[in-house]
User: Which sequence fits this backbone?
């Protein structure tokens, strides 16, 4: 049986996106940017999956010291038995989407993503 993650990681491609995001100076640390990426993925209606080829960055105890993120994921996706696998998947999916947007839309800023509406399928 697969266990839930004890560490959260990023793919090599998403590490590069994270560096680009951090260079913009909007987030205090990578953990904050990761939580933004997770929220962005959820807001865009992406579904939880598996993040393959990740390298460890955060221990779940440092990323979620009070367990609030685990509880949030459990409430949003009650069918999941492994919330930290879902967190890792959403962080990576969100970074992938943000990186894509940064590549395709010259001059896009993180603040441009904050007020975006959810995809039309949710309206």
Assistant:
């Amino acid at each position: 049986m697969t266990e839930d993650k004890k560490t959260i990681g990023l793919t090599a491609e998403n590490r590069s996106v994270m560096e680009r995001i951090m260079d913009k100076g909007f987030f205090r640390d990578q953990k904050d940017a990761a939580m933004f990426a997770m929220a962005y993925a959820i807001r865009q209606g992406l579904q939880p999956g598996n993040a393959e080829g990740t390298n460890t960055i955060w221990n779940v105890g440092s990323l979620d010291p009070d367990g609030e993120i685990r509880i949030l994921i459990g409430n949003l996706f009650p069918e999941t038995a492994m919330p930290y696998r879902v967190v890792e998947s959403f962080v990576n999916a969100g970074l992938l989407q943000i990186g894509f947007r940064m590549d395709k839309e010259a001059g896009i800023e993180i603040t441009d993503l904050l007020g975006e509406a959810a995809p039309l399928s949710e309206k």
